[in-house]
Design brief:
Bound molecules: adenosine-5'-diphosphate, magnesium ion
Distance between the termini: 82 Å
Number of strands: 24
Structural class: alpha+beta
Strand content: 15-25%
Mean pLDDT: 82
Largest sheet: 8 strands, mixed
Number of helices: 19
């Protein structure tokens, strides 16, 4: 540092330009973004992008938009020169992608640029060449309506920046992600993308987002996606999102747009995560394409020079809007709403509110409460002909008896597999012994458990649910929680195949943490002395052999093979379809399921339960 303070001076134009360029032009993808947004602003129906070395050597964007008049060409490359706004007030209501009038100037100051353009009414197009911000050639040139801009040797005059560029491959990936976003937001535009002489995208104009998504993300993903939409107070959101059965290990395939600009907004990502939170396993992410439309005055796009960040003024409202759009559109539910529900307890004649009244007043009050209860529980007209105490009256008998039986099976059925049973149906009410405080469970086809929830009913898949429980339990034990081992009375001697031996050797530590005690027993055989205590049935060792079969020759990294081990264990140890369950077993299974953090899906992402809402039932019975 010099001793004397240095003089302050105003930087020259070229230096200012290069500093400004650093904000807009970060890498080839940001150049492509600016050029393509200009093409879209110019009304292009067809846009083609060509890359060499991921855009580091050169990149070209060609469009059939309205073009730039020859005389205006130099102006387009001047800083703060734009055709899109006139005054600062226009910024708040701007409908185009661009408005800062900076991009072309910035790009031209750090690269060699060639632009050829023609407007519809001109006889001839024009060409302009700029190097490091200096115009070096300007002459008439033939072309059709539209604009072609080629940017070569990006950062040739700012070597420090050039050094920060990643590999051509990484730059190409960034460009492709960007173009995927822009192509999703503009399905009716034709896109052609080539890199290193190879065609990467050739997208015909699509008539819907679904068609465009199919072309870009693949038909298999889209088959697992559903539409969602929601609108409130001038804000709206719509798009496509994957069902919980289709998830990915990262957020790469979450595309969020605000007024058709691709954005990165923490609140919106959070809204997506929360909508799915209870439906998909931790660490997994849905595929989402969401378009948020907000009034121009509610969003500030002028936060970041490249406009990839936006500030949403009503963040909380928008958060709720997006979250509930997804929850409703995808049928994602909160686990809380899907818990078995006992119904309200029936009015209790012994309750203080009745007991402390003079007898005839108490009787009247109680009768009203009971009527009310029936109306609520057995829907409209429920009280017709049904009496709480003693004998049902009139035609209510049929209805009443069935209702009684249904209510009394609550927690009472003991016969496996055969639905309500166990407790004898008594005539008295509410004097019957069956408690009203447990939700009833039935097993259907020895495969599904059916029970009532607050808003309707659920069918629970006994195998998928048990898989979820076992998976989480085993995961906890691998995480060091430890798990009790149950010593076998007669240790089991198992002969293994070479693949099983390999699988056992590479998972020995994990199997031990899960509660298996296994020792080598000479040759290809092992001796199993203990198994996880929670295991109901290990089929004389078949369970372990099945798991080792699944893992044979598996040489994935340990993180992934642990997941495979857990999934295989959960799958083989879980109760199967076709196995009878007693009511206490069903109750237990459902309680444990809801005690996990992912009660709505099994480890493979399949649903554990399906819900039928009262609304759906009413519709199907023609009550709606
Ligand atoms: P901005 O987009 O913010 O206006 P730019 O520097 O990106 O600023 O572009 C400057 C001007 O050049 C634009 O306002 C537009 O008039 C013109 N322009 C740039 N690219 C194109 C194109 N592909 N087609 C037609 N006009 C263009
Ligand atoms: Mg622009």
């Amino acid at each position: 540092m010099a001793e004397e303070p240095r003089r302050i001076r105003v930087l020259d134009g070229a230096t200012i330009d290069r500093i400004a360029a650093g904000e807009v032009v970060e890498r080839p993808a940001s150049v492509v973004k600016e050029l393509v947004e200009n093409s879209l602003d110019a009304g292009a129906r067809q846009i083609s992008v060509t890359l060499e070395d991921g855009g580091l050597t050169s990149l070209t964007v060609d469009d059939d938009g309205h073009g730039v008049p020859f005389r205006d060409l130099p102006l387009a490359f001047e800083r703060h020169a734009t055709s899109k706004i006139i005054t600062a007030a226009d910024i708040m209501s701007v409908g185009s992608f661009g408005f800062r009038g900076e991009a072309l100037a910035s790009i031209a100051s750090v690269a060699r640029v060639r632009c050829v353009s023609r407007t519809a009414d001109a006889d001839m197009g024009g060409m302009l060449e700029i190097e490091g911000g200096e115009i070096i050639r300007r002459e008439p040139a033939p072309r059709n309506r539209g604009t072609t801009i080629t940017v070569s040797d990006l950062f040739y005059n700012t070597p420090a920046r050039r050094k920060f560029m990643k590999t051509a491959q990484a730059e190409k990936r960034a460009v492709m992600r960007l173009l995927t976003q822009l192509a999703l937001a503009n399905p009716d535009t034709r896109w052609l993308v080539r890199a290193e002489g190879e065609t990467l995208l050739d997208l015909r104009p699509a008539s819907s987002l679904t068609d465009r998504a199919r072309d870009l993300l693949g038909a298999s993903v889209v088959a697992h996606m559903a539409r969602f939409e929601n609108a409130k107070g001038g804000f709206s959101v719509s798009g496509l999102a994957s069902r919980p059965t289709w998830t990915r290990g990262n957020r790469e395939q979450q595309y969020v747009f605000v007024n058709r600009r691709p954005v990165d907004n923490a609140a919106l990502s959070q809204a997506i995560a929360q909508a799915y939170r209870e439906s998909i396993p931790a660490g997994r992410h849905a595929v989402v394409i969401a378009f948020l439309q907000v009034p121009a005055g509610e969003v500030d796009v002028n936060v970041h020079p490249a406009k990839t960040e936006v500030r949403l003024l009503l963040e909380r409202e928008i958060f709720g809007l997006v979250k509930s759009a997804l929850v409703d559109g995808l049928g994602l539910r909160r686990a809380e709403d899907l818990r078995p529900w006992t119904g309200d307890p029936a009015p209790d004649p012994e309750a203080p509110e009745f007991r402390n009244l003079p007898p005839h007043e108490a009787a009247e009050r109680l009768a009203r409460a009971q009527d009310d209860y029936l109306r609520r529980h057995f829907q409209r007209g429920g009280s017709a002909g049904f009496e709480f105490r003693g004998v049902p009256r009139g035609q209510g008998e049929l209805f009443g008896a069935a209702a009684l039986r249904a209510q009394q099976s609550a927690g009472g059925a003991t016969e496996p597999g055969d639905g309500p049973g166990g407790h004898a149906v008594t005539d008295g009410w509410p004097g019957a012994e069956a408690p009203l405080h447990a939700a009833p469970f039935w097993q259907l086809h020895r495969t599904y458990i059916v029970t009532q929830i607050r808003g309707g009913l659920v069918l629970i898949d006994q195998h998928n649910s048990h898989e979820r429980i076992l998976y989480n339990e085993a995961q906890r034990s691998l995480g060091g929680a430890g798990v009790p081992t149950q010593q076998l009375l007669f240790p089991a001697h198992l002969e293994l195949t070479p693949g099983q031996v390999q699988a056992w050797q590479s998972h020995a530590g994990q199997l031990q943490a899960m509660g298996f005690t296994i020792e080598p027993f000479g040759g290809q055989s092992i001796l199993v002395q203990g198994v996880p205590a929670s295991l109901k049935n290990w089929n004389e060792g078949r369970l372990l052999l099945d798991i080792l079969d699944d893992l044979a020759w598996d040489d994935k990294p340990s993180q992934e093979n642990q997941v495979d081990l857990l999934a295989s264990y959960a799958c083989h140890a879980a109760v199967r379809a076709g196995e009878p369950l007693t009511v206490p077993e069903m109750q237990n299974l459902v309680d444990q399921l809801f005690a996990t953090d992912q009660p709505l899906s099994c480890p493979h992402g399949r649903p554990t339960l399906i819900q039928f809402t009262l609304g759906e039932l009413e519709k199907r019975f023609g009550r709606a």
